[in-house]
Amino acid sequence: MNFSAAYVNLPWRLKVWENLYTFARLYEVDNYKKKVTDLLEEFKMKDLKDYKTDALSSGQLTRLYLCKAFINDPKLLLLDEPTAFLDPDVADLTRKYIVERVRKAKTSVLFTSHNMAEITEICDRVIFINHGKIIAEDTPYGLAKKIKFCRVKLLFTVDKKKIETLLVNYQYQFNWQDKELTVEVKEENVGQLLGRLSLAKLKYYQITIEKPTLEDFFIKVAREKI
Amino acid sequence: MSTKRIFAMVIRHLYIWPRSLERFMWSFGWPFLEIVIWGLTMQYLQKQFISSFSIVTFMLGAVIFWNIISRTQNEVAINFLDEAWNKNLLNIFSTPLTPEEFLIAMVIINILKLSFTVIALTLASWFFYQFNVIASFGFYIPVLLLNLLLVGWSIGFLVTGLILRFGYSVQELAWAITVVIQPFSCVFYPLSALPGWAQQIAWIFPSSYIFEEMRRILSSGQINWNNILTSFLLNIIYLVFSLVFFRLMFEKARENGKLVKLN
Predict the structure, then answer these.
(1) Strands A133-138 and A173-177
(2) What are B248-262's pLDDT values in tens digits?
(3) How far apart, in whole angstroms, are the C-alpha atoms of residue A75 and residue B12?
(4) Which of A20, A184, B99, B184 is 20 to 30 Å from A74 by CA-CA measure?
(5) By a Cβ cutoff of 8 Å, what residues of chain B touch chain A?
(6) What is the pTM for the complete model shown?
(7) Section B174-190 average pLDDT
(8) Which CATH architecture has domain A147-225?
């Protein structure tokens, strides 16, 4: 077992290699010097080996914590928001490291995050917990599929009034952001909506259809519960 | 019990020892200054009030012995606090490391560092004031030293347990507790100098016996073994109590998730 979390640190006055050696010894890892060298290589930390821990940036720190988390080849790894304080670029790299490493070492990971896109990318199975109770459990795709509505975004330059009348008549859920119209509609009814618009000779310029995401599911579930 | 894990913790704390200024001051700087200041003060007083026995040696012996207690207590408590300040408690205690192994590691670090402190103090008092600790206490050194260490460990484990229970709000105890105990330990004055009620309290402190015997050895070369034995027995009782207390507080902290954040 091993773990990494945003609310724990490693002693900041120790150098990177000193911290990793200490934990390798605590986990009684065989041939630990080689193990540390390999992990530093894998997480692109080799040049930072002699740096003091407090001299590292938050992205480098996260990689150091991950080296520590993988040092005993854990069968079960707990990662509590490992990308919480990272910029999108480093967060993306970190996710790739984790996925690659986990695939290679066949580790089971319990991963917590508030970033739904991240969960969709990394996890095989998702459990939503609200006030200590499990409220949903499925694959990320399976959960997102429970939301029946998708969002159709259309760009109009004219006839705003006419369009609104049509949408109100057919009882669509919609809102405007300047010239961009967003309509929430069941997936199978997207064609019907577009058909009605063209019958009324309303011309749109761009069309985007957004499928429901895990984030939509999260928002729906969280708001229903509260 | 794994020696590998114990030494992992010992080495972790030895890594920072040479490169941390405050730890250098704790080990050498402040104790050395104490020796110099007390030595000078006592030399001056000795010249003013000519007396048959040397109050300088009493003071130097007291300073060295007291440093053994306070450095020992400090070492245990502050190394634990250091893990907490570094938010590292959860990391080390989610490895197979047990609290007992952790305490043993603290004791080993303590003995290693303390030997350097004591050697430095012995040399300083010999060089500046011609007070030779080794010649003065001779064969009594091991029993005195053992009892002093036991006092330091019991207080250190007790304070660590208190910090686990009450969090950072009581971390000052890591430094302050020895100051509270000092008056009843009769470090710089004989037990008879205390008011009657305080003498009653002083008897429950194993340290008071050791300092009484220290002065007896310096003035007469004799030792009262009964006092040493009493001190030792009290020490053992307190040590067992402090270990049980630490263990209970550790379990409580773990159940309540306090190892994440000590507050």
Answers:
(1) unpaired
(2) 999 999 898 888 777
(3) 26
(4) B99
(5) 2, 4-5, 7-9, 11-12, 15-16, 19-20, 82-83, 86-88, 90-92, 94-97, 260-261
(6) 0.82
(7) 89
(8) 2-Layer Sandwich (3.30)
